[in-house]
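name: query_chain
kind: protein
chains: 1
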Amino acid sequence: MPNLETLCIHGGWKPKKGEPQQLPIYQSTTFRYETSEQMARLFDLEDEGYFYTRLANPTNDAVAAKINALEGGVGCLLTSSGQAANFYAVFNICQAGDHFVTSNTIYGGTFNLFGVTMKKLGIECTFVDPDWDDDRIRAAFRPNTKCFFGETISNPGGNVFDIERFARLAHEHGVPLIVDNTFATPINCRPFEWGADIVTHSTTKYMDGHATQVGGAIVDSGNFDWEASDKFPGLTTPDESYHGLTYTKAFGRKAYVTKLVSQLMRDLGSIPSPQNCFLLNLGLETLHLRMPRHCENAQRVAEWLEKNPRVAWVNYCGLPSNKYYPLAQKYLPNGSCGVIAFGLKGSREDAIRFMDRLDFVSIVTHVADARTCVLHPASHTHRQLSDEQLREAGVAPDLIRLSVGLENADDIIADLNQAMN
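structure:
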């Protein structure tokens, strides 16, 4: 397999004689066939091809193939957002009456999706603190538990997830580990190499890198044995909506990702547009160059914050003093990401005043952009959570999420400094 740098540029699209060097945008809803039988075979999943963009599109598939190669999976599905990716990843193996376990430090929108919205669908979720010991984590599993979910680097807290440990605990109970790898990206961490079974991404973030499109991705490792138990009838028993086809029998290691496309995307339709996938592909071409610079800048800013007398605390796993530094050295030896969590000495109002005085550092509901941006989660992304839920999710009222961009690090520090002054 080529190295990641080469895959970022050449993965997914290999032009033939006379074809465009750059991935083209197939901006079409439909694709023509010469006979009715050709179309019928596509609908029966007996042939591969394109007939309707909700199910497959050449532009989308080329970008999905690139992300799949970067993560080392057997298949990838692109979605219209990272939230859609996380929903599909869990819903593909859960139905009413089922249960799953998740880290409590995940992104606030995902916390609400799992704890509130999916509960309305009859799917229950138990939140656990990743710092709990093994026995306390094990106690969260039930006979109807279908998966465990976590984030490589938590948003917004910046905690590092012990992938190998939670893969072991999930597999002890016969369920897959799903890891959201948005912040680390496959440039800095490939969760499949540590035992994860499914990886999700908000491609809106570092993969895009320029705040031009919203999207998500689900990558299947192909390693989980769905037939080892009777926990996953959706994959191991006949699907009446496809003439009694059984996904594990028909598609082997690609059973999970095939069901994602042919059942969930067919019925729910959370697709990205070919135009968005084209923009995402442009971002992916420089991902291997941007991530080291994000990490380099963030390391310098984190070290400056740690020494600053106005700062109460800093959470960045690249700091040797950080609680998660040993895990970062294990899973993220080349760098983590550009996101720093910190708090100022003073009140919530002090944090807001600091943000309001920033110059080019932007207050936006976004992260992982080429531009440095800042957010106060308790006031913004997590404002739907109660104080108790904020504490459960590891979000302190004074937490400021700083996403360090690609500007000159001295200029970033100077802007932070003048705002603090």
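note: The mean pLDDT is 94.
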